[in-house]
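Need tokens for this chain, all 116 residues.
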Amino acid sequence: QVQLEESGGGLVQAGGSLRLSCAASGRTFNTYSWDWHRQAPGKEREFVASISWTGGSTNYADSVKGRFTISRDSSKTTVYLQMNSLKPDDTAIYYCRLNRYGGNYWGQGTQVTVSS
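Here are the structure tokens for all 116 residues:
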């Protein structure tokens, strides 16, 4: 089993920044990538960003390109989402997901609220 613990959410004004963290523990071997997703009220969960296990490849949703940066630490057990120039439309619950051969694991989510 894999456990994911997210942190870093909160309330911020438009134009502000937040950094989300997602720490993994347990059976993380055979992990090949990490994702961040988000779900706004009344909307479906959507992809935000991904990073390969090596950190050499990243991808972003068009809506966050140039504003958000995904990264992971050298131990490869924590992934981050640096969010700059936040907009009210970024308000959502943010979830991290660890993707490994044999299954994917989701975090519990962390609320991000951006006020105008």
